[in-house]
């Protein structure tokens, strides 16, 4: 019964993703043929007319698109990854020609050289012209296409800042080309690599060699993650690798976790408020996204300020909260805490009182603000 229910939910989710997808056909001069695309836009794309979005390019779109699009939609709903535009390229009839390589140097040849140019010179300009995209671009491939996306990494100016490489069928020289390039990369780059214990033998061997070479590279611009899954096949590994990859690549974007709170905030000599600023500056710098500070993160930093007795920073936290949630009492509450802890009880009382006109949020209520104001009034005889 549980298996039947699982299959029903899976089919329903696929139908929902398909219902949200846009189907385009692009005519390519490079290929001398047309290509079918599947495009998933963020849920509120049409309402947020001034907002731009990171771009995810999915090769093997005929079977990978739904897996990627579904995971992206789910994770972005919970704000663990940014909203993105997902574009899948259908290769069901052209995969071999699209991914062939030279036996002499392992680089694209003939049809794959044309496909390489199609993506960089035709597809990306087409998407950027017709949809609102940010500079951040992620490429995803599996098997032969996982090998292929690495050719963009080898360019002097790589087209993508992030790569999800699942069970790659590597060309012979790529186990040298890729680590050498990642060791010299001079801008922030995310590289996720995965295989499985039951992968195709040649794929597993090549992936393990590649992992060994990459993990020995020291480069502050490289964010590298490797997973070897247990008991999955070459094809079933995709379903587990995609969510793990998204979590890894967008870890900075995610809400502050309990581990992050203890290990990166409380254990640090730096003020907690600085951690919050740097986190959201990094989100903008890495992904091109102006993310509103989450309530979760405000509460985490407020707790750290309390524990570390950095009470003066409540003032700046209050200003940040006013900017992020101007209609709510969050900013007023933090400013009142600043006045309360810096021996300005009268200002604290008035600030608590003034918060009554703002909306309740994050467990803060108007009754609570009035109670805090009355307590100060009684304590100091105002």
UniProtKB/TrEMBL annotation:
Keywords: Signal. Residues 1-19 form the signal peptide. It holds the Pfam family Esterase. SUPFAM superfamilies: alpha/beta-Hydrolases. InterPro entries: AB_hydrolase_fold, Esterase-like, Mycobacterial_A85_antigen, TPR-like_helical_dom_sf. Transmembrane segments: none annotated. This is Esterase. It comes from Formosa sediminum.
């Amino acid at each position: 019964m549980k298996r039947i229910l699982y299959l029903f939910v899976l089919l329903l989710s696929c139908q929902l993703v398909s219902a949200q997808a846009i189907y385009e056909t692009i005519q390519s001069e490079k290929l001398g043929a047309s290509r079918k695309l599947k495009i998933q836009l963020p849920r509120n794309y049409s309402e947020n007319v001034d907002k731009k979005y990171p771009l995810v390019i999915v090769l093997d779109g005929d079977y990978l698109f739904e897996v990627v699009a579904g995971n992206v939609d789910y994770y972005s709903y919970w704000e663990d990854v940014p909203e993105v535009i997902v574009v899948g390229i259908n290769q069901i009839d052209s995969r071999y020609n699209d991914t062939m390589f030279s036996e002499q140097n392992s680089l694209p040849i003939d049809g794959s050289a044309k496909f390489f140019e199609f993506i960089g010179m035709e597809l990306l300009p087409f998407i950027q012209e017709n949809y609102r995209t940010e500079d951040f671009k992620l490429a995803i491939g599996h098997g032969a296409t996982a090998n292929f996306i690495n050719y963009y990494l080898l360019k002097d100016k790589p087209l993508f800042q992030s790569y999800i490489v699942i069970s790659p069928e590597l060309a012979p020289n790529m186990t040298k080309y890729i680590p050498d390039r990642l060791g010299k990369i001079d801008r922030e780059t995310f590289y996720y690599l995965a295989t499985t214990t039951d992968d195709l033998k040649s794929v597993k061997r090549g992936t393990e060699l590649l992992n060994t070479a990459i993990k020995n590279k020291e480069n502050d611009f490289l964010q590298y993650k490797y997973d070897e899954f247990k008991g999955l096949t070459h094809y079933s590994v995709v379903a587990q690798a995609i969510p793990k990859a998204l979590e890894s690549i967008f870890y900075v974007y995610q809400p502050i976790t309990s581990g992050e709170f203890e290990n990166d905030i409380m254990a640090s000599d730096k003020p907690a408020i600085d951690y919050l600023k740097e986190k959201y500056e990094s989100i903008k710098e890495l992904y091109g996204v102006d993310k509103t500070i989450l309530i979760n993160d405000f509460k985490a930093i407020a707790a750290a300020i309390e524990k570390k007795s950095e009470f003066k920073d409540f003032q700046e936290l209050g200003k940040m909260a006013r900017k992020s949630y101007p209609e709510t009492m969050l900013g007023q509450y933090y400013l009142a805490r600043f006045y309360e802890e810096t021996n300005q009880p009268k200002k604290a009382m008035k600030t608590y009182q003034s918060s009554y006109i703002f909306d309740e949020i994050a467990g803060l209520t108007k009754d609570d603000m009035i109670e805090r104001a009355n307590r100060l009034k009684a304590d100091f005889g105002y």
